[in-house]
Amino acid sequence: MLLYIFGVLIIVVGLAVSIGLHEMGHLIPAKLFGVKVTQYMIGFGKTLFSRQKGETEYGIKAIPLGGYISMIGMFPPTKPGEKVHASSTGFVQQLSDAHPNAGTTDVAGAVEEAIEAPSPGDEEPPVAGETKRRAFDALVQDARDMSAETIGEGEDARAFYRLPVYKRVIIMLGGPTMNLVLAILFYGIVLVGFGAPAASVGAVSECVVPAGASTDSCAADAEPSPAAAAGFEPGDRVTSVDGETVTSWDQFSAIIRDHPGDELTVTVLRDGQDETLQLTPKLTSRPEGAGSSTMVEVGFAGITRAGDMQPQPVTTVLPAVGDNIGAVVGIITHLPERLVDIAQAAFGSEERDPNGPMSVVGVGRLAGEVVSIDTIPIVAKAQTMFGILASLNVALFVFNLIPLPPLDGGHVAAALWEGIKKGWAKLRRKKSPGPVDAAKLMPVTFTVVVILGGMSVLLIYADLVKPITLFG
Description:
alpha+beta; Pdz3 Domain; four-stranded antiparallel β-sheet; three-stranded antiparallel β-sheet; 13 helices; elongated
């Protein structure tokens, strides 16, 4: 049990550090460009510890599931000469600042109350369209009013919105970029430091055993497996296939899967000597993924890998990060249908997709499971933990680039839109349209927060009642 808790703590600490460095990626360029930063916080909710250093308060909050920095002047004035307003990179901090003792749900409720409350002097209920417009206006103005109190006199020149577009983009991309750097670092540790499963043969099946057979033994007239027919032996290390250098078992397995019926020239290192074998993978059907009922046709050889690891060259790190980014983008692209599947699994009898999204609770459970298994070597446990942290940082990188407020990508999109508008006006020799009023996006921000909150609750519930497990 203690090992399980230790595994969970590793992920919690690793996630907190990743979030802290993400916010540092915003903080450093913001200060370099002269923007006043009033707060740097890791977590949300009640402040556990804070210390004032210069003009910035640094602290840790109770819920380590996010972070933010507060910069003045995120929102431009509605009219020239008006006082600027402050905001933050944290997605609910503007609202929670007005309710320091309330949680996210309480803040959302307060906003809803403000939206639903009638305006002073209204004698008759306004029509539906008017109510909606007033609700949006109130949300925008309340956000400005709540943040305006933090702005000191004479600090307009240090407002975020006054920066050139490229500097604002640099500040907002600083956080995701930090996560990308961490992902590259962790993948480097996993692949270059620990290594990947070596392309070494552990066992060779003597024959092709039909799917569903009750025994693995070979009958006298059984068809030899492709690997046995080619002459593979335990201990062979695959070095190349059809002239292509092979550095890992995964690479060799992918070649076999993709070439059923094709004769492959395989070079193996056996007892210090190169041997050339002719392998023709057999066409077979197998599940598309763990727990999947969809069958796909792939190549089959009848060999299993040995347990040794082989350090990989540095050139394998970026492709591995790229593959993970592609996988996360795929998950986000199909997120609505995946959430439906998760809901059906959580509240029904369906199984969870092991390759689907999970909350930090699910990730922590997987980490605890890995660390608590006695049969897994310590080196393998350490490698798995670094791999999990690498994947978490890839997820933070991709997710924060979604072009919706309050995510970093939303701020980047607003800045780029402003640059496009100003550039177009300049080409037409028209007056500059001025800064984009990001405060008008507060209704979108609130909607995104509600959606993200609901998604988080669903994922956490699913990870508690029907978790994804690595074993058993």
